[in-house]
Amino acid sequence: MTIKFDAADNRKKILASPTYSMAEDDAEFIKSGPLRPVRVAMELMKAESVQQQEKIVATIVVFGGTRIVERARAELLALEAKEALARSPGNPQLQATAMLAEGRVQRSRYYDDARDFARIVTEACACGTCPEFVITTGGGPGVMEAANRGARDAGGRTMGLNITLPTEQEPNPYITPELCLQFHYFAVRKINFLVRARALVAFPGGYGTLDELFETLTLIQTGVMERVPVVLFGSAWWKRLINFEVLVEEGMIAPQDLGLFTYADSAKEAWEAIRSFYAARGMAVEGSPLHPWTRRPTTAH
Fold first, then answer.
1. What is the three-state SS of 36-52?
2. Higher model confidence: residue 105 or residue 217?
3. Which end of the chain is more exposed for a tag (fewer CB within 10 A), N or C?
4. How far apart are CA 85 and CA 144, in angstroms?
């Protein structure tokens, strides 16, 4: 029996088949499980390529909570919460919301502080008395937005390393467009936070902030990463949250490990802590024609 075969039609099917696509054009293949190592490498390579092209040598990384907003916004949310509670005073959920909203007003100072800190650093760089420290954040709202905004206020470049999340997170509008990168893998993103970091300033935040802070401290403690100043902004908040001395008392860390970070309560104090760190090592941040920032940064591997 002769089977009817339409060669022209079959050729169309061949050309339309995903198996005929070049591997680089096959999105389904690239996003498949076996290609995960390739995607990780691609994220690393793209971020490195962009930063080399933009001549990013040294960064100061600012971490902090997404739920910290500027004062005007916090006051508006507090007012709305009070009005809702007034309409239903016995509602425990609205009582809790109103209490949190009041606390958000108090914490809004950290938005202003992060913005001031980034502005101070960027203005110092603009004067030509120190290398360009590019303020770098996770690119989202809250403290991250404030820091990017402060650098933008001073007319400087500022970088945001955004991450894809189940609930969509868009980059804040103050990032330099050429320096806004998006990552799928948290691990690759954290590498890019630290590979050019010359200092890290951690503002109050949640799990993400704590994760980034403790990974940095671990890398410095173990010698995997070169020592850089780590500043915990808001001494009362951090000391209330974490009793680091307990780790020493219990023998979990050495007493000298408490020296891996310092506290600051103002933007100027945070910047001075960074300058003092390098001055103590004979590496002037300002006023010297020779700066150490052209060396390959921080991570040993």
1. HHHHHHHHHHHHHHHHH
2. 217
3. N
4. 31
